[in-house]
């Protein structure tokens, strides 16, 4: 048994740790046994567990859990990147959210993580030309998790969306790898224009609570956007912007602001 677990851990350490934590959770809180078994321990892989959670959360009188489960299983079987991105997202949440103490928490309890994984399936549907079904997924994600992410938007790996209330990410938005954002962030347009009209967020960017980034602008890698800011112009890499409208108030303060999650403004005259 120990040898089997060691082999599993070497192949998929994230899933192995999630399962170990699931056993610990059942021991500590037996009343959660049904939830933990159905959501984690019943499944052979993380992908199968994610598909189950997707179908359970998004099912409604309009779309059955069975149909959604089949869609999710198809997506994970066809696109290995979905599962790899989910693993990177779990690790991002664990590393950056001080309220996350175990790998299993995002999978079971954190709606920001769950909303991003559901978006990823919607994005896969969009890429397959199944756009009406992708819109359905977007609608249900918005209704269930309070995060409205257009399925055409492009979002990288290692994403942490803390709390996830009132997140809006528009159709032509691009979000790089290892980005962190807090609640009430909008990556939106500036009017009724069509075409490429939403922000492009570089790798490692930290976006504070309530920030609005509007228009087809570029936010440079490893920059910080202060809480409550309204960003209407390009931001160079490794800078901090704040205010309404936002302006540069200093350097980012570190190499990876999205990882450190330090949102304090230091040594600036803002």
From TrEMBL:
InterPro entries: Hexapep (IPR001451), Hexapep_transf_CS (IPR018357), LbH_SAT (IPR045304), Ser_AcTrfase_N (IPR010493), Ser_AcTrfase_N_sf (IPR042122), Ser_O-AcTrfase (IPR005881), Serine_acetyltransferase (IPR053376), Trimer_LpxA-like_sf (IPR011004)
The protein's enzyme class: transferase
Gene3D superfamilies: Hexapeptide repeat proteins (2.160.10.10), serine acetyltransferase, domain 1 (1.10.3130.10)
Molecular function per GO: serine O-acetyltransferase activity
Gene Ontology process terms (BP): cysteine biosynthetic process from serine
One Pfam family cited in the UniProt record for this chain: SATase_N
Key word Repeat present: yes
Transmembrane segments: none
E.C. numbers: 2.3.1.30
Domain Serine acetyltransferase N-terminal: 14-118
Keyword field: Acyltransferase, Amino-acid biosynthesis, Repeat, Transferase
SMART domains: SATase_N
GO cellular component, one term: cytoplasm
Pathway listed: Amino-acid biosynthesis; L-cysteine biosynthesis; L-cysteine from L-serine: step 1/2
Catalytic reactions of this protein: L-serine + acetyl-CoA = O-acetyl-L-serine + CoA
Family label: Belongs to the transferase hexapeptide repeat family.
UniProt protein name: Serine acetyltransferase
Naturally occurring in which organism (per UniProt): Tabrizicola oligotrophica
């Amino acid at each position: 048994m120990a040898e089997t677990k060691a082999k599993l851990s070497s192949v998929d350490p994230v899933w192995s740790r999630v399962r170990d934590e699931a056993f610990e959770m059942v021991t500590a809180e037996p009343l959660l046994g049904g939830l933990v078994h159905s959501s984690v321990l019943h499944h052979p892989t993380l992908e199968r567990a994610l598909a189950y959670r997707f179908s359970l959360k998004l099912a409604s009188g309009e779309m059955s859990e069975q149909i959604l489960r089949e869609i999710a299983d198809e997506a994970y079987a066809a696109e290995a990147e979905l599962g790899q991105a989910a693993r990177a997202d779990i690790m991002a949440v664990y590393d950056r959210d001080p309220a996350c103490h175990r790998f299993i928490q995002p999978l079971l309890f954190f709606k920001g993580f769950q909303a991003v994984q559901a978006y990823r399936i919607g994005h896969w549907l969009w890429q397959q030309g199944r756009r009406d079904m992708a819109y359905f997924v977007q609608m249900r994600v918005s209704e269930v998790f309070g995060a409205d992410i257009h399925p055409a938007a492009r979002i990288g790996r290692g994403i942490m969306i803390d709390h996830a209330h009132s997140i809006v990410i528009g159709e032509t938005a691009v979000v790089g790898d290892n980005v962190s954002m807090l609640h009430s962030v909008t990556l939106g347009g500036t009017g009724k224009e069509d075409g490429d009209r939403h922000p492009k967020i570089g790798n490692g960017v930290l976006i504070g609570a309530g920030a609005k980034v509007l228009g087809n602008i570029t936010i440079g890698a490893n920059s910080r956007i202060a809480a409550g800011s309204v960003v209407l112009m390009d931001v160079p890499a490794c800078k901090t912007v704040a205010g309404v409208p936002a302006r540069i108030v200093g350097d980012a303060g570190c190499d990876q602001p999205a990882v450190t999650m330090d949102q304090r403004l230091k040594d600036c005259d803002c």
